[in-house]
Automatic annotation (TrEMBL):
Protein's organism: Rhizoclosmatium globosum
Xref: InterPro entries: GLR_AS, Glutaredoxin, Glutaredoxin_euk/vir, Glutaredoxin_subgr, Thioredoxin-like_sf
Residue span, Glutaredoxin domain: 17-79
GO MF term (any one): glutathione disulfide oxidoreductase activity
Keyword terms, alphabetized: Disulfide bond, Electron transport, Redox-active center, Transport
The protein's name: Glutaredoxin-1
């Protein structure tokens, strides 16, 4: 779990907007599409393409209390998932800029 912690913590620190995702997940696709359509630059980490993706997802669950993807962070703050990011944009409260 130490490697997963280092990986996650580094990616959160190094990226203004990061989406921990799975390539087959429709909610992940919806969240990433919203960011793309709003011209928000983001980094996506596709957990299903990583050998330790399950370990990373377990650490994210421990860190955030959220077991599902997408797991989104903006400015090193956990936002939540697909519904949360859509709610932020719907209210006009995006912290991305």
């Amino acid at each position: 779990m130490a490697d997963a912690k280092k990986f996650v913590d580094a990616h959160i620190a190094e990226n203004k907007v990061i989406v921990f995702s799975k390539s087959w997940c429709p909610y992940c696709s919806k969240a990433k599409s919203l960011l793309k359509n709003e011209n928000i630059s983001y980094t996506a980490v596709e957990l299903d393409s990583l050998d330790n993706g399950d370990e990373i997802q377990a650490y994210l669950a421990q860190l955030t209390g959220q077991r599902t993807v997408p797991n989104i962070f903006i400015n090193q703050k956990h936002i939540g998932g697909c519904d949360a990011i859509h709610a932020i944009f719907h209210k006009g409260n995006c912290m991305c800029w």
